[in-house]
Automatic annotation (TrEMBL):
This is Probable cytosol aminopeptidase. Keywords: Aminopeptidase, Cytoplasm, Hydrolase, Manganese, Metal-binding, Protease. Binds 2 manganese ions per subunit. It is found in: Cytoplasm. Mn(2+) 1 binds at residues 269, 346, 348. It comes from Cellulomonas cellasea.
Length: 499
């Protein structure tokens, strides 16, 4: 991730490899969003030739122009923010991110988007840092160097001495580091990231966070068996690499609130005996995105020293078919004693989450959130960029508000009581699947059974967690890191409410 600083220097005099300015779309053609960022002669030329160059100002449009020595920067970069009358903080975030993403391999970048207030500054800094990401673990050194994110980043703002502005930049760096950490985990090949390996990485990441307030506890197969974690054990039966439950606890000295986060961590999901179609199965390495988001949200809270106690529960297993795998019609006993008839082994995420939810609520948090790449029905209902949230009405509202403020897209969904009947089992307390229609909601109703009445929300990120199409804004191909920004904003809301 690039080293980021604030500067109030005239953008025209910044000696950088690339200077980024914003262009908006209007009915009269593209318009520079902050004309003062460029000298008059450069503004005139850009405006005069914009249409001929095909510049529109649309979102995700990034164009490089030579400066011919008229700027200290080697290249002028125009990034689109969309319609001039709809320039929101998220539009700035996205435009800054699109520019830095397109500038992979460039050493130094200055971003001169409007940042005269703290909210705009935060959005520009977050977007630029989120866009400055690449995953090159499996690439040769020369290819990795060409794809490396920008090395240094300067954000142009008049607020360089403002304490709130400095705090906003520091938060943006912590946030981007957390999102990048999630992306790295999601993009890792499943032969390198299995439950035990994930647990080891969680311990290492917590140590790197440098906070004595973070403690990591790992339960292996023996400990899971002793603790009655039948969901994790059942899902993990088919793999030679056993399941783990990882508890990552951040405990500040005087917490204003106590929050639990539970993440689905299926390090590879073949579907088990109810095997998935081969087409697209390679994307199932991303089925641990919820656990990754939980891990890095807890660590971000620790780095920011939020006055909220946050405990993350990473429910890790590999769902594989084999002679030892669980079968449709098996009955599992979840921690706490409820029994579940497994009608479909590809509905495994809710089984490991059930164990995690029970463990989390046993510690009596004020609220619990779970996050998971849980259902294909989420994608059918909301597509690949909008996540779902359901649960206790008040908590669902808090999550939606946190998402809106952070720039992530979460849509509130109901939990209709009539769908509970579809989860009835003839031999157990409930079945792990219900009726075909409303599958996303039925999954939420299943999870609700294990919350013990604790205020709760379920975040289904099945589509948005992994981008299989083209990059856009600050979002790369592959792991996206979705959910971190929303959960961190949720924790900050709780911190403010508890003061």
């Amino acid at each position: 991730m690039p080293r980021a600083t604030l500067t109030s220097q005239d953008p025209a005099h910044l000696d950088v490899d690339a200077l980024v300015v914003a262009v908006a779309r209007t009915d009269q053609g593209p318009r520079l969003l902050d004309p003062d960022a460029l000298p008059q002669d450069v503004r005139t030329e850009v405006t005069a030739h914009a249409v001929a160059l095909g510049i529109t100002g649309d979102q995700d449009e990034v164009r490089r122009l030579p400066t011919a020595g008229r700027l200290a920067a080697k290249v002028l970069v125009l990034t689109g923010v969309g319609a001039l009358d709809a320039v929101t903080p998220e539009a700035l975030r996205r435009a800054a991110g699109a520019a830095t993403r397109e500038l992979a391999g460039v050493g130094s970048v200055a971003v001169a988007l409007p940042a005269a207030d703290v909210e705009s500054l935060a959005a520009v800094a977050e977007g630029a840092l989120l866009g400055a990401y690449s995953y090159t673990r499996y690439r040769p050194a020369d290819a990795a160097a060409k794809a490396a994110p920008v090395a240094t980043l300067q954000v142009v703002t008049p607020l360089v001495r403002d304490r709130a502005a400095k705090a906003a930049l520091a938060r943006a760096e912590v946030l981007a580091e957390a999102v990048h950490g999630v992306r790295d985990l999601v993009n890792t090949a499943p032969n390198d990231l299995f439950p035990a390996a994930f647990a080891d990485l969680a311990k290492a990441a917590a140590k790197d966070a440098g906070s004595r307030s973070v403690k990591v506890t790992v339960l292996d197969e023996k400990a899971l068996a002793a603790g009655g974690y039948g969901g994790l054990l059942g899902v993990g039966l088919g793999s030679v690499r056993g399941p783990r439950l990882v508890k990552v606890a951040y405990t500040p000295s005087k917490p204003a609130a106590k929050v639990a986060l539970v993440g689905k961590g299926i390090t590879f999901d073949s579907g088990g005996i109810s095997i998935k179609p081969a087409a697209g199965m390679e994307a199932m390495k991303s089925d641990m995105a919820g656990a990754a988001a939980v891990l890095h949200t807890v660590l971000a809270a620790a780095r920011l020293e939020l006055p909220v106690a946050v405990t993350g529960w990473l429910c890790l297993a590999e769902n594989m078919p084999s002679g030892t795998a669980q079968r449709p019609s098996d009955v599992l006993t979840i921690r706490g004693g409820k029994t579940v008839e497994v009608l479909n082994t590809d509905a495994e995420g809710r089984l490991v989450l059930a164990d995690g939810l029970v463990a989390a609520t046993e510690e009596k948090p004020d609220v619990v959130l779970d996050i998971a790449t849980l259902t294909g029905a989420q994608m059918i209902a909301l597509g690949n960029r909008v996540s779902a949230v359901m649960g206790t009405d008040a908590v669902r509202g808090e999550v939606t508000a946190a998402a809106e403020g952070s720039g992530e897209l979460f849509w509130p969904m109901p939990l209709p009581a009539d769908l509970r009947a579809g989860l009835k089992s003839k031999v157990a307390d409930l079945a792990n699947i219900g009726d075909r229609f409303g599958g996303m909601l039925t999954a939420g109703i299943f999870l609700q059974e294990f919350t013990g009445g604790t205020p709760w929300a379920h975040l289904d990120i099945a589509g948005p967690a992994f981008n299989e199409k083209s990059a856009h804004g600050y979002t790369p191909v592959g792991g996206t890191g979705v959910g971190v920004r929303t959960m961190l904003a949720f924790l900050e809301q709780r911190a403010r409410a508890g003061r």
